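User: quick one - fold this with zinc ion bound?
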Amino acid sequence: MAQQRNATAAVQDEDWRLQGQDWLREELLRYRAYAPAKAGSEHDHCEFCWTPFRSRPQQGAASEGYVTQDRRWICETCYEDFKLMFDWIVEI
Ligand SMILES: [Zn+2]
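Assistant: Sure. Structure tokens for the protein plus zinc ion:
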């Protein structure tokens, strides 16, 4: 019966990644290859699961994802899991 749960029900409010990121609600996101704000200073991470972002693909890191206008990054997995909850707008 678990298979019948729809996408909205799959992520519960008590998901460990949710830490009250209300500032990300209805944000305008763009899908981009990761690039640090300053060359050589790659310390960005997913706003939800803390997966690090790196410009070169590597184990345990994301090299592309969704970025807000103030350069906060969201990995693809978290985007898919939380897009309905946060009403994001994606600009191509
Ligand atoms: Zn994430």
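One thing worth noting: The first strand starts at residue 28 and ends at 33.
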